[in-house]
Amino acid sequence: MKWPTELLLIRHAESAYNNLKKIKDADPDYARFQELFERDPSNPELQPLAQSLHKAHALGYSDRDTPITPKGEAQARMTGKAMREAGVNSPDVIFVSPYLRTEQTLGVLKEEWPDLRNATVLHEERIREKDHGLGVLYNDSRIYFLLHPEQAELHKLLGEYDYRFEWGEHPRCTSEEPFMDYHNYARVCRKESHGDHASSDYPVYSGKFRET
């Protein structure tokens, strides 16, 4: 059985969530919130500030449906063009996360690197983030814990690893889940390679594999 020897990882382009972090960092109220929290998490000024920031910086998307930004599209376009102009061999198999931002990244890459359209695309549910449940509405764990003090107590009691956000996943749900069944992957590689080579390219972390 032949095994891949090359792996190309391509992370998704800038998403709306990535951009939101930059917007928050430029907000003086958010800077004050961070300063006060660092000094004393029990400061009574933090509660109203957390409520205000929660409303001001709501993302409005689920994690799965978070899109890329115009800047992200430009990043993906630049990457695809660079791959094509560098003469990088197009993969035969593409593993892509089902999240919108990864699908959009792949779509733009295909526009600039047309050979990708010949690859077999496999949507791999296990290439994803941990589900943060209710925490996704807050986009900042400090704000979440300030507005849900009972969850803050539970987090303190259980610790970072064992705690999970309400309606969210435990870290074991993703950390212990195998990224890929290598025997099944090898079977796909052999089927798609026709005796030549096999590769995989999947945004959020996309991968390109080549057989030995």
Notes on the structure:
With 212 residues, this protein is mainly alpha-helical. It has a two-stranded parallel ribbon. α5 links the parallel β1 and β2. The longest helix is centred in the middle third of the chain and has 16 residues. It is elongated and about 60 Å long.
Describe the structure concisely.
With 212 residues, the protein is mostly helical.
CATH architectural arrangement: 3-Layer(aba) Sandwich
Count of structural domains: 1
State which percent range the strand residues make up: under 5%
Going across the major beta sheet, what is the strand order?
1-2
Tell me the span between the first and last alpha carbons. 9 Å
Order of helices and strands: HHHHEHEHHHH
The averaged pLDDT comes out at: 82
**What is the share of helical residues?**
40-55%
CATH fold title: Rossmann fold
Class derived from helix and strand content: mainly alpha
Low-confidence stretches: 178-183, 189-212
Counted by DSSP, the helix tally is 9
CATH class equals Alpha Beta
Shape: elongated
Q: What's the total count of β strands?
A: 2
Major sheet, described briefly?
2 strands, parallel
